[in-house]
Design goal:
This protein is of the alpha/beta class. Strands 1, 2, 3, 4, 5, 6, 7, 8, 9 and 10 form a ten-stranded mixed β-sheet that branches. The protein contains nine helices and ten strands. The chain has helices at residues 42-45, 68-71, 82-94, 109-121, 138-143, 160-167, 172-187, 213-227, 257-269; strands at residues 29-37, 50-55, 78-80, 100-103, 128-132, 150-153, 191-192, 198-207, 232-236, 274-276. Helix 3 crosses helix 4 and helix 8 (213-227) packs parallel to helix 9. Strand 5, helix 5 and strand 6 form a beta-alpha-beta unit. Bound molecules: iron/sulfur cluster.
Amino acid sequence: MEGCMLCPRRCGVDRAAGQRGFCGADNTVHVARAALHQWEEPCLSGTRGAGTVFFSHCTLGCVYCQNRAISGRQGSGVPVDEARLAAIFLDLQRQGAHNIDLVTPGHYAPHIARALGRAKADGLQIPVVYNCGGYEALETLRLLDGLVDVYLPDFKYYSSYYAARYSGADDYFEVASDAVAEMVRQAGAPVFDGEGLLVRGVLVRHLMLPGLAGDTAQVLRHLAGRFGDRILVSLMRQYTPFGMERDYPELDRTLTEREYADAVEIFQDLGLAGYLQEGEAIGESFIPTWDGTGTAPSC
Ligand code: SF4
């Protein structure tokens, strides 16, 4: 925290002294919502829901982010200490969550690791899911070795041009590829329980963007070539434009049926395993209410 290097931005700012780097987070964890969530892949949401904990701020800066109300530098959310965070995890378990789904957690990794240790000592038994943008530092991921059961990273881009233009991270591909390798090293091949829920492994998400079919094909080929059947892949089609018309007019539309169908064909030809979206079956665009639900001490 005194010279933050938690993500590949390596800002070096003193967050313990209240300084903020690219992500906008200081030394206090902020949570925007903690609740059961039905909108992940079926192997994570199951019948009762994933126990999502949405953290404020983000180390990426995707221009099309649907969670921008909490992900930006201004952020929002409720401040929580590590004891409260551990209590939130245990409360989600009591509510019947299939897992603890940590959403955009990287910039709070040390706090989360300590809170998880505390919660596990107090009876947390359900799998822990690390749901991130894929832009992760290896040293930070190693803090979580043995604490996380399922990694759920995005793999957004192959091209450094698109990564720079849309997420301000021209090194995204190299960083994400090495991050997924570390995740596979830690979590191993996918393991499901008797109810079809993913309890260990790596599920990589790729959100298709309009006009980037070639980039999607490169991402899928790379994932198949480097990781093969050691990962699952979720090919997502629910991109929804928000205020793109002025600065990013090329992103101001949804995907065409043809764009998705072509990507599905590549996915299947490569022998990838995982999830495809039929219509709005999974991941339909859904933005929760960022009102601090589930963070209060009385919950
Ligand atoms: S976590 Fe935030 S402050 Fe730390 S290096 Fe990354 S962007 Fe910078």
